[in-house]
From TrEMBL:
Residues covered by the HMA domain: 3-69
Full-protein interval shown: 71 to 142 of 805
Subcellular location: Cell membrane; Endomembrane system
Species lineage: Bacteria, Bacillati, Bacillota, Bacilli, Bacillales
Origin superkingdom: Bacteria
Protein name: Copper-exporting P-type ATPase
Homology family: Belongs to the cation transport ATPase (P-type) (TC 3.A.3) family. Type IB subfamily.
Length: 72
């Protein structure tokens, strides 16, 4: 199963921040593909809901010092 979720990203100060977030999400078990757009302050993640949840992504990225909020 593949689900997609979109987040708004708060706290990014430079494009390397987007790369840090993207790499961290891509390393999480159950994440197929994460893309973070610095200019748009958006993150899009394709994931397996049986392995990982958007809430776990939010918690993981909070540890890096950025805030993800679900976009509906
Ligand atoms: Mo840029 Mo971000 O110098 O975590 S990498 S502010």
């Amino acid at each position: 199963v593949k689900e997609k979720v979109e987040f708004e990203v708060e706290g990014m100060s430079c494009a390397a921040c987007a790369n840090r977030i993207e790499k961290t999400l891509n390393k999480m078990a159950g994440v197929f593909q994460a893309n973070v757009n610095f200019a748009l302050k958006r993150a899009a993640v394709a994931y397996n809901p049986a392995e990982v949840t958007p809430e776990e992504m939010i918690k993981r990225i909070d540890q890096l010092g950025f805030k993800l909020s679900l976009k509906e």
